[in-house]
Design goal:
- This protein is α/β, with parallel strands linked by helices.
- The protein has 2 domains: 172 residues, Thiolase/Chalcone synthase (Peroxisomal Thiolase, Chain A, domain 1, 3-Layer(aba) Sandwich); 143 residues, 3-Layer(aba) Sandwich (Peroxisomal Thiolase, Chain A, domain 1), CATH 3.40.47.10.
- The chain is 32% helix and 27% strand.
- The protein has 10 helices and 13 strands.
Length: 325
């Protein structure tokens, strides 16, 4: 009995040229490289240039993913773009990407789940492809979080950066076995009771401003490990996979201590964990595809590998995806 799977054909990424180091931040605010590295593992982050928007980052990542997949943009009939920092309130930033790529068919829309955005977007595209509604999708995570930071708040401004990552998915018939290529399972959760722990204090309907990111760091850390492991256990239960059978663990790159604690709790070997938080900081919805692109480019992730994604973000939202490369 065959099963339709969303198979990854390629991935790509884009980072703004400007790099902001911890030392440069320490010259602006009361912090230090040692303080930031010890608490987060972050050493630098990329910052979008003036006039460089989320759509620009997303377009570059999408083109890189299409090139890696060996496809022309006209082969794409669905674009799902995860972002919390769109170019405009409307239209969707995905439509700008669609237009710039010269695609005038199919559908394109944004998805908002903050740092969990890429996993939510992957799950959404996967369901559309498996239903037969669309054939090939671009799933993009793109953010310019530097535009919503309070640069005087050392508890948040040291954490985040800008960037974009993308994957190309294609609906393919597979044997219907755990060895199938493609998205094997996704699990999504949210709980609005935790809104005040991580949010932006503005919006069109409330303040008519963009606002700034606000976070209760200790509270986020306290909930993160439990929520992350919850959806990963669900992924294992759904597929029969285990910490030993996965080849790579590519988590949301928010904080090295959260990543280490989650891997330890799940008994995932440290050598299986892909870490880019030191180079990129927290790029929200872009962090997983950025880390994936690094691991694919350097040869770690290979065809047939079992790759586990997980993320948690404001809301709270959290989710996991298990993908056979």
């Amino acid at each position: 009995m065959t099963a339709k799977r969303s198979v990854v054909l390629g991935c790509g990424s884009y980072l703004p040229q400007k790099v902001l180091t911890n030392a440069e931040l320490a010259a602006r605010i009361d912090t230090s490289d040692e303080w930031i590295v010890q608490r987060t593992g972050i050493r630098q982050r990329h910052i979008a240039a003036e006039g460089e928007f989320t759509s620009h980052l997303a377009i570059n990542a999408a083109r890189a993913a299409l090139e890696h997949a060996g496809l022309d943009a006209q082969a794409i009939d669905l674009i799902v773009l995860a972002t919390s920092t769109p170019d405009h309130t409307f239209p969707a930033t995905a439509v700008a990407v669609q237009n710039e790529l010269g695609i005038h068919h199919g559908a394109a829309f944004d998805l908002q789940a903050v740092c969990s955005g890429f996993v939510f977007a992957l799950a959404t595209a996967d369901n559309f492809l498996r239903s037969g509604a669309y054939k090939r999708a671009l799933v993009i995570g793109a953010e310019t979080f530097s535009r919503i930071l309070d640069w005087n708040d050392r508890g948040t401004c040291v954490l985040f950066g800008d960037g974009a990552g993308a994957v190309v998915l294609e609906a393919q018939d597979q044997p219907g076995l755990p060895s199938d290529r493609g998205v094997l399972t996704t699990h999504l959760r949210s709980d609005g009771r935790h809104k005040a722990k991580l949010y932006v204090d503005g919006g069109p309907s409330t303040t008519q401003t963009v606002g700034h990111l606000r976070m209760e760091g200790r509270e986020v850390f306290k909930h993160a490990v439990g929520m992350i492991t919850d959806v990963i256990v669900d992924a294992f239960d759904a597929t029969g996979a285990t910490a030993d059978s996965i080849d790579w663990f590519i988590p949301h790159q928010a904080n090295k201590r959260i990543i280490d604690a989650s891997a330890h709790k799940l008994h995932i070997a440290p050598q299986k964990v892909v870490l880019t938080v030191d180079l990129h900081g927290n790029t929200s919805a872009a962090s997983i595809p950025l880390a994936l692109a690094v691991a694919v480019k350097d040869g770690r992730v290979k065809k047939g590998d079992l790759v586990l994604f997980e993320a948690m973000g404001g809301g709270f939202t959290w989710g996991s995806a298990l993908v056979r490369w």
